[in-house]
Automatic annotation (TrEMBL):
NCBIfam families: hutH, PRK09367.1. Pathway: Amino-acid degradation; L-histidine degradation into L-glutamate; N-formimidoyl-L-glutamate from L-histidine: step 1/3. Belongs to the PAL/histidase family. This is Histidine ammonia-lyase. It is found in: Cytoplasm.
């Protein structure tokens, strides 16, 4: 994988920044352990080295794991125990997890090692840095984590690559054996010592990494939702009076205020809006999908803000079991339970489904002659001969229906494992996987709305748009043609979705009206 981000992410004993997680996961930023981190790792390892020769039972060092924790392991077998743990726990199955997710979870596990709280050796921690810096990405599968005792199987597949086993994708994306990839990069396999196998797999890194990536995407998507809503409000000859600052401040939710401010900026100086601000306008108020856009989008913004707070706390955590405390004790704990992350992953999926749902309703309104305020049926060039955007709305509706299913919480479910030792689990990994799909679905629903609204605005000619919405419409037109007879729509939807992901439309709007929230 070519490195496209040259600033090195330096890991010390403090939390890694969410922006650095994105940079390493998506842009290939290199990573390095600071001297402070190396010192902390050395001190933590000294504690484990003392326990490694102790006859007293210490979980993960001289005992088995899970329901096998009562089995005493003699000193001569304690290193073997760690490699066996990694091999047996690398039991994932199903579709492969995206490269960016694997890189994020590896970085987060390395960040935890850098605290010194896991008891790994410095070469083991450096091994993860080397894998990241050489673009070696272990093959991780969709199924295998219950979100408790950490993301066990996903992390075990990463640890398996570290010891030179299993399969990886190299920097060029070729699927090869891990041992071959290490040799090609000039790296040696790590032979795990006491406790290291456990330390490499016992964290919430997979679900946290996916939460951070989703929040990064939602920052842009929620602004894009405001852009789409503004275009629809304008195209449907709705009023912007309901977005007034004094009305919004009567219900002081910060996300609602941000969304309404965006709508005001985007709709300012619109000739289309001005055309129906006349005494003979009989419309008292608009449908909820138009009038309440800031309330729905704002609630999603506030939900994302709460999720970001949880993510920041988790980034500051040292998660392992047992964990080495700052005063040198080795203690069992339950901090690996994924409930805090699992809850907000589910909460975000609900918000995403609702934002997509209101967007689809605005899209449908522009296509219905009974509600579109004079626009042609389905925005077709010759309705009946042409179907216009009829089936684009079907696509949006189908996605929204799927998003509602994805909004069913994973964290409300639990299946016991490990012979009832691990009898309550978070299912946070499942929540993370469905949130990724939901974010992609929202992107496509907004693409359909923006594509439809751009066509509707063109059909309002000779009335002119606001500078903000017009700039977005013009950016769409750089990729997609204007109104006319029916044509192949799928590539046009995909083109606008790519523009949303690339930030092209948000940049166009901000260039015209100034920064948006």
């Amino acid at each position: 994988m070519p490195t496209t981000h040259t600033d090195t992410v330096r890991l010390d004993r403090g939390p890694v920044a969410a922006t650095d997680v994105v940079a390493v996961a998506r842009a290939g930023a290199p990573v390095a352990l600071t001297e402070q981190a190396k010192d902390a790792i050395t001190r933590g390892r000294a504690v484990v080295d003392t326990l490694a020769v102790d006859d007293a039972p210490h979980y993960g060092v001289s005992t088995g794991f899970g329901a096998l924790a009562t089995r005493h392991i003699p000193a001569s077998r304690r290193a073997t125990l760690q490699a066996s743990l990694i091999r047996s726990h690398a039991a994932g199955s199903g579709p492969e997890v995206e490269r960016e997710v694997v890189r994020a979870l590896m970085l987060l596990r390395l960040s935890t090692m850098a605290t010194g709280g896991t008891g790994v050796r410095a070469p083991t921690a450096q091994g993860y840095a080397d894998l990241l810096n050489h673009g070696i990405t272990p093959v991780v599968h969709e199924y295998g984590s219950l979100g408790c005792s950490g993301d066990l199987a996903p992390l075990a597949h990463c640890a398996l690559a570290l010891i030179g086993e299993g399969e990886v994708d190299d920097a060029d994306g070729r699927r090869i054996p891990a041992a071959q990839a290490l040799t090609a990069a000039g790296l040696e396999p790590v032979v795990p010592a006491e406790k290291e196998g456990l330390a490499l797999i016992n964290g919430t890194d997979g679900m946290l990494g996916q939460l951070i990536l989703a929040l990064h995407d939602l920052d842009a998507l929620l602004t894009t939702a405001d852009i789409a809503a503004a275009m629809s409000v304008e195209a449907l000859l709705a009023t912007d009076a309901v977005f007034a600052d004094d009305l919004v401040r009567m219900r002081p939710h910060p996300g609602q205020a941000e969304s309404a401010a965006n709508l005001r900026a985007l709709l300012a100086d619109s000739a289309i809006m001005a055309s129906h601000r006349t005494p003979d306008c009989t419309r008292v108020q608009d449908a909820y999908s138009l009038r309440c856009s800031p309330q729905v989008h704002g609630a999603a913004r506030d939900t994302a803000g709460h999720a970001r707070t949880v993510a920041e706390r988790e980034l500051a955590a040292t998660i392992d079991n047992p964990v080495i405390t700052p005063d040198g004790r080795v203690e069992s704990n339950g901090n690996f339970h994924g409930a805090p992350v699992g809850y907000v992953l589910d909460f975000l999926a609900i918000a995403v489904a609702d934002v997509a749902g209101i967007a689809e309703r605005r899209t449908d309104r522009m296509l219905d002659v009974a509600r579109s305020q004079g626009l042609p049926a389905f925005l077709a060039d010759d309705p009946g001969v042409d179907s216009g955007h009829m089936i684009a709305q079907y696509t949006s509706a189908g996605i929204v229906s799927e998003l509602k299913r994805l909004a069913v919480p994973s964290s409300a479910d639990s299946l016991p494992s490990s012979a009832m030792q691990e009898d309550h689990v978070s299912m946070g990994w499942s929540g993370a996987r469905k949130l990724r799909r939901a974010v992609d679905g929202l992107t496509r629903v907004l693409a359909v709305e923006i594509l439809t609204a751009a066509r509707a605005l063109d059909l309002r000619t000779p009335l002119t748009t606001a500078p903000g919405t017009g700039a977005v419409r013009d950016a769409v037109r750089a990729e997609v043609g204007g109104p006319g007879p029916d044509r192949y729509l799928s590539p046009e939807i995909d083109a606008v979705a790519r523009q949303i992901r690339a930030g092209t439309l948000a940049t166009a709007a901000a260039t015209a009206v100034g920064d948006l929230a």
